[in-house]
Amino acid sequence: DDSTPILALPGGSVWQFFVFTIPLFGVYCYFLYLAITRPDIADPDNEKFYQPRIRLTDILYVYLTTWVLYAILMTYMTYFVSKRRRLSKRYEKEGITVLGDVLYDDENRYGHCGWLCNLLCKKNDYGYVVYDLERVAKHPACDFQGGNLMGKIKKKVRIYYRYPREQVSILVLPQYPFSGQPKIDLEADWASFSETYLVSEGYNEAAENNRASTERVMTRDRSLGITLISLGWLMFLLSASVFVCLQIGEISDVYEDESSYWAWTIFAIVMGGVTPVVAIGGNLIRWKMYERWILKSGKAGKPDGSYGSLPRKARRNYLSADESVASHSVASHSVASQSQVTTSEEEDGAYIQMA
Q1: Residues 103/164, Cβ–Cβ less than 8 Å
Q2: Mean pLDDT throughout 320-324?
Q3: How many CB atoms lie within 10 A of CB 128?
Q4: What pLDDT does residue 321 have?
Q5: Are 25 and 63 in contact (CB under 8 A)?
């Protein structure tokens, strides 16, 4: 049921990932068998010499391409996931609490293709929080030095409890007033990488609305399993690639379309150039984008009190006209006097971001 929240990944996720890779592993083992037996038929007197064959260089390409993909996954699990978790746990240790609303719209606007859009874009996993920046500014622990905080802000967030809520706890990091996240959804996120985590606040409401099935979210850190599987694949692909390069060296004098020099050149380029740039650089850029989205993104109300891009079912007038105009003028004045805060008028409203 799409309306039921996922408090953590299904328990069989690691096994599903493992089983999914078994057919691929079987095909790659067959490629390895071809590389082992190729020198035996690399003889014009052998009747199999003139039969159609898969070039060992092509097999090397397949191995190295898969190596890069698993290197990206391995780096993602060891770097991006660990940093995301540390950032999430900062809310538990440092976060200040203000009241706000959570907006969620589960309307399907894509017809029969809705399931595909949700699979690719994870639309059902995201909602919006709306809270008062002035409440954040008045909190004793607020440590923001970027100017006056006025009006309300709306930002897109990852949610686990898939239903709208009003006047619930929003956690905000003291140095980042635009970092608000729903508290019970953060607790569910912590549960997804903890042995056990008791989700207490908001549980009764969730249970009454059939949005939660158990009081205690039982989870295990499945990223370790995925990391180990990825590590196993990387070791296999590295060994297989080296072996294929050696086999190409044995048959390069017989087959004109096989070159030992080219094989080792491609191997060195992928290992020493492509992998660090794509796996490490790509995940670093992804993390910086994610960190900015969590800490520094948000959208202010337009002067007419609307939010522009807010989904139709969740659209509400949170700001009165006077409050909205005041907050818009204060934000514009803040931009002129403080370089730390920037606003830009767009078709759907003024975006507020910390520089």
Answers
A1: yes
A2: 33
A3: 21
A4: 29
A5: no
- In whole angstroms, what is the distance from residue 189 CA to residue 181 CA? 11
C-beta separation of 352 from 307 below 8 A = no
- Give which of 6, 14, 125, 126 is closest to 77, Cα–Cα: 14
- The model's pTM is 0.70
The DSSP bridge partners found for residue 351 are 299, 344
Q: What is the DSSP letter of 342?
A: E
Identify the CA nearest to 299 among candidates 117, 149, 154, 176: 154
Please give the Cα distance from 144 to 341 (Å, whole number): 11
User: H or E stretch including 26?
Assistant: helix 13-41
Quickly state the pLDDT bin for 188 (edges 50, 70, 90): confident
Which phi and psi (to 5°) does residue 320 adopt?
-70, 160
* Residues 46-66, mean pLDDT to the nearest whole number: 88
State the pLDDT at residue 332.
37
Average pLDDT over residues 46-69: 89
Q: Lowest mean pLDDT of 38-47, 93-102, 321-330, name the range.
A: 321-330
Q: Note the pLDDT of residue 111.
A: 59
In 10 A of CB 119, how many CB atoms? 10
How distant, in Å, are the alpha carbons of 225, 268, 289, 291 from that of 72? Answer: 16, 18, 17, 19
* Backbone phi, psi, residue 182, to 5°: -60, 135
| pLDDT over 90 at 288, yes or no | yes
How far, in Å, CA of 174 to CA of 171, rounded? Answer: 9
Distance CA 47, CA 55 (A): 17
Neighbours of 191 (CB within 10 A): 20
Q: Which residues pair with 136 in a beta bridge?
A: none
Mean pLDDT, the chain, integer: 74
The residues near 267 (Cβ < 8 Å, ≥ 6 apart) are 60, 64, 241, 242, 245
Residue 69 CB neighbours (<10 A): 15
- Residue 84: partners with Cβ closer than 8 Å, 6 or more residues away: 287, 290
One-letter amino acid identity for 28? Y
